[in-house]
Amino acid sequence: MTSNNSPGPHLFKRDKDGLLDNVAYIFNNDGSVNWRAMIKNEHLFPNRSWFEMRNKPVPKSIDGLKDNQLLIKLSGIKELARLRGFSRVSYSLDKCEHDHVAVKCTMAFIPNYETGGQEITFEDMANATINNTHSFAKDFLETIACNRSFVRCVRNFLNIHIVGDDEINKAEKQTATASSKKASTSDMSPQGMLSREFDNFDDFKSHLRDFWVNGTYKKEEVKTWDSFRDIPTKEARILLKLVKEN
């Protein structure tokens, strides 16, 4: 008896524009695919830290939440990558030490009408350290860094501004001394106020990457910033306004 395997391959057929035949895509006004709208709600959930930092209750659903108040699961990123289509993915270690691993993810996205029928290679980088991971993840920094770089590569290529759950710093909160708490609270400089909007500087840099990709804020000097203190006062004011508006 011969098995009928046609149902499986049929679901992966693409049309002449590079889109899956069996998927109803959602489009932007300019005709491009609205990849953000293609994310199923089951892959999204409230960003607990965003609400806790502002002393607000964490919503029980994602209804009415803005993108910066959400997180996307790895499963959602994988589904987006499948919908878009890619021919290969590779990883390269830029740094590999016992407490710090940096990985670059490179993906070749298949041709579609958005790219003029050309294959596009895109890459992005992420790191994992013992300070921005938690629990057993500290023993698997390479894996965490690979996941983070994959998430950033897919969502930045597809113009998704929801931070991936794998990207955020889940390190246990360190017990701050009374003096450091007081200093943090009393710092009313633009840099200090900006720092209170994020868990840490890595979290800020992740948002800064989104601003860069969508063209909201693009300045070469950001590459030299290693802490909130490095941000010029004028730029800190601009960024603080952008963060609050988004």
SSE order, as H and E?
HEHEHEEEHEHHHH
Please state the structural category: alpha+beta
Could you say which overall geometry the principal axes of the C-alpha atoms support?
globular
User: Total number of β-strand segments?
Assistant: 6
> How is the biggest beta sheet arranged?
3 strands, mixed
CA-based gyration radius: 20 Å
User: How many domain modules?
Assistant: 2
Amino-to-carboxy terminus distance: 59 Å
> In order across it, which strands form the biggest sheet?
1-2-6
Residues in helices, as a percent range: 25-40%
Low-confidence runs: 173-184
Per DSSP, what share of the residues sits in E-state strands of 2 or more residues?
A: 15-25%
Counted by DSSP, the helix tally is 8
Mean pLDDT, rounded to whole units?
87
Structural write-up:
By secondary structure, this protein is of the alpha+beta class. The chain folds into two domains: 13-171, no CATH class; 173-246, no CATH class. It is built from eight helices and six strands, in the order H-E-H-E-H-E-E-E-H-E-H-H-H-H. It has helices at 7-10, 48-53, 74-84, 141-157, 178-186, 190-195, 201-213, 233-245, and strands at residues 44-46, 70-72, 86-97, 100-109, 120-129, 163-164. It has a three-stranded mixed β-sheet. It has a three-stranded antiparallel β-sheet with strand order 3-4-5. A hairpin with a 2-residue loop joins strand 3 and strand 4 (100-109). Helix 3 (74-84) packs across helix 4 (141-157). The longest helix has 17 residues, at 141-157. The radius of gyration is 20 Å and the shape is globular. The chain starts with 6 loop residues before the first helix and ends with a helix. The relative contact order is 0.11.
